[in-house]
């Protein structure tokens, strides 16, 4: 509940609407409570003595009240909807902004599917909880209290007779609210799992088809879908048992009133109008109890959702600027040094992914990171822009520890094309200029030319204005990678990291890209992660990683003589059986020279 109260701060800017809706609600309650009294008046002062004037006058008042009540109910609706809509919009925005602050490891922990459910379903539930509270939350207790007061003023002895039953009802309601909270939390967790499977499946639908894993995926989905549905069934069963139980209590109370009140009418101590008004008030008091069950439903699910949304707000981004952090000047040289760097993910101290890494990339050098899959290449380069913080040692840029640099200036100096190419919906031009939105068309074209993607774009009917479908599905892997390289180039970084970003590009195009990059990005320090040895041959330094450790570093000529691991990789990829590729690569220098010339 405390989380729900905490989140109510998002309602603060709309307090006027919220208060207006509650005030209207109070008037609605007063009018609702007046009706049984007027019925009593019609019976006792109109029908029984045969006074039609009283009947007509009272009926007109009742009509008037109903009309005003309707207007007030509409007003209440408008105010509560606009306050709760504004509340959920602001909350969604705040959660979205908070997610942008998260580091990679924060995002590893709070999975994407999970975050989407919190941003959508949980916030919608919270919105409904607040709206219901503004519409019926205040109304129900007011009506119950008002009805009892009026019942008591009509006939105190009769009211006291139904108190035990009311207490029983209160216990049932409290038990219900107490039990529902954990169930709703569970439902949202099941929805998380459902969404994660759904998201993985939709994102990987091509892989599913290619590997004929449809049945497996259907089974996987069936399991989470069933669990979600089962949880909902439990709640609904619980809920459906409550309503008849409450009706039973109401009926008992009604019998007690008619029995005991009937006797009083016969004895002449109670009028017919009074007993009708009394039963009316009882119904009026009991109906909100049913509504309160709905409200309990909403509050219980709201409490569960509030806990999940608050968890996002309470998550501390684990990569933050130090107060004394410095701004990295864009005129830096770009010398990068790893000093005894070690790293493990998610507190897994015993599973070091990088161990005692020492390496230097001099300003303007191209350093290639080579190694088997899973050897830690991506992890190593991800530490430079602080996607994760090192767990041991330090990384220096021009002698400054990256943890002492303001992140924004670090990102401005370091551009990375991640292993998985991410493109956004929008045009090709917008995607290339994503990191430098003020770039001119000429600059965009220059970057595209360098990335060897200009000719492809030019041939498209809409050229640079061609829309990219969601996640770039209308482009080939190699085309996407080259657009991502152009995007990185256009940021004019001092340090450029290409993380296996030419893996889907053919060897010839890759060598052209490298040749042009050598020229265009002169002075920029390049890190090139690769599994293909052809990608790294011309690097100033090749670092060979094996299970998180540097096992060799040097130029190709040095390593081929001194490193058995490197020689083994070289032979396996470009050895005797790969003459054609070897020949092509020996022409690489020539192409580089041609580009330079
Ligand atoms: N976000 C993560 N959370 C936990 N472990 C991770 C994470 N990312 C990578 N790992 C683990 O760290 C190790 C190194 O992974 P990394 O991606 O750095 O290797 P890599 O050499 O780049 O591999 P590849 O060539 O296949 O891309 C692997 O064992 C991997 O399972």
TrEMBL record:
The chain crosses the membrane at residues 20-39, 59-79, 136-152, 158-180, 238-261, 281-300. GO terms for cellular component: plasma membrane. The keyword Nucleotide-binding applies. It comes from the Bacteria. It is a multi-pass membrane protein. PROSITE patterns: ABC_TM1F, ABC_TRANSPORTER_1, ABC_TRANSPORTER_2. Its main location: membrane. This is ATP-binding cassette subfamily B protein.
